[in-house]
Amino acid sequence: MDDYPLLNLFWTMLWFFLWIMWLFLLFRVIMDIFRSHDLSGWAKAGWLILALVLPYLGVLIYVIARGKSMGKRDAQEAKERDAAFKAYIRDAAGTEGDNGPQGSHVDDLSRLADLKDRGAITEDEYQRAKSKLLV
Question: What pTM was computed for the model?
Answer without folding.
Answer: 0.57
